[in-house]
């Protein structure tokens, strides 16, 4: 059952952050309207998405440039063909929480 996990302080990062919980890596993204979370591993060949380039609401994988919608995890550009998982987030008392 998914539970809320404390990831980091909101002020700990500018645009992306890697949160690790029990060996599972989650990428956090700060967008204009809030903080979002996806699996950190690209669905193509497992590169870390928190190192990717953010343009608008999309993250570009640093290895081959697949583009994912940060809000939904959907693939918007190849070579990836499978989405990445997304996770609910919330901010409380200055900390980011991820439900996973
Ligand atoms: S590893 Fe991400 S696009 Fe290839």
Structure write-up:
- 0% of the residues lie in helices and 49% in strands.
- By secondary structure, the chain is mainly beta.
- Strands 2-3-4-9 form a four-stranded antiparallel beta sheet, with no helix packed on it. A four-stranded antiparallel beta sheet has the order 5-6-7-8, with no helix packed on it. Strands 1-11-10 form a three-stranded antiparallel beta sheet, with no helix packed on it.
- It binds FE2/S2 (inorganic) cluster.
Explain briefly what this protein structure is.
With 100 residues, this protein is mostly beta strands.
Compile the SSE list and pairings.
Elements: E1 4-9, E2 16-21, E3 24-31, E4 34-39, E5 53-55, E6 58-60, E7 67-69, E8 75-77, E9 86-87, E10 89-92, E11 95-99
Antiparallel strand pairs: 1-11, 2-3, 3-4, 4-9, 5-6, 6-7, 7-8, 10-11
Q: Any key phrases for this structure?
A:
Rieske Iron-sulfur Protein, binds FE2/S2 (inorganic) cluster, 100 residues, 11 strands, mainly beta, 4-stranded antiparallel β-sheet
Could you name the CATH class? Mainly Beta
**What is the count of β-strands?**
11
Number of helices: 0
Superfamily at the CATH H level? Rieske [2Fe-2S] iron-sulphur domain
Question: Architecture in CATH?
Answer: 3-layer Sandwich
């Amino acid at each position: 059952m998914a539970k809320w996990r404390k990831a980091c302080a909101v002020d700990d990062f500018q645009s992306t952050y890697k949160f690790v919980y029990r060996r599972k890596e989650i990428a956090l993204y700060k967008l204009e309207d809030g903080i979002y979370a996806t699996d950190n591993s690209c669905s193509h060949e497992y590169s870390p998405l928190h190192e990717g380039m953010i343009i608008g609401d999309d993250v570009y994988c640093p290895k081959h440039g697949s583009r994912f919608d940060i809000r939904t995890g959907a693939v918007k550009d190849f070579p990836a063909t499978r989405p990445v998982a997304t996770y609910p987030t919330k901010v409380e008392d200055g900390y980011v929480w991820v439900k996973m």
